[in-house]
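User: My collaborator sent over this chain with a note saying "see what the structure looks like." That's all I know about it. Can you take a look?
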Amino acid sequence: MKQIITVFIMAILLLFSVSIPLTAFAVSYPAQLYHREERHDKFVKGDTVYLFHSGTDDVKNTIHVNDTLAVYRITPSCEVVPIGLIKVISFVGETYIKGEVSAGEIKPDDIVRKDKVSCLVISAGVCRE
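Assistant: Without extra context I'll predict from the sequence alone. Here is the result:
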């Protein structure tokens, strides 16, 4: 009887030791899927950039092709500093805008704003037309 209980406890411990690491992988995603290697450090005048937006009607009613949008960067001290301009070339899909840098040195994760609408600058290599 004591031997059966010992085998049963060992089997339960073995199951727990195998299943606990598996549940940790249930919510983690491969980093390569979301962080592409081809990412530009900066964009200068004439470079093409892509902006991510919410796809709502506010964006479509506020931002139009040939608009010039202000670009801002948030500093480590949480100040919003204007750093450049982007001209809208076209809408790509439902949530992206293709633009061209008109002035400044733009980096991925900078914020583009017009009125109450904001977009996020992403790497040019992410979108495919």
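A starting point for your reply to your collaborator: The helical segments are 2-25, 31-34, 57-62.
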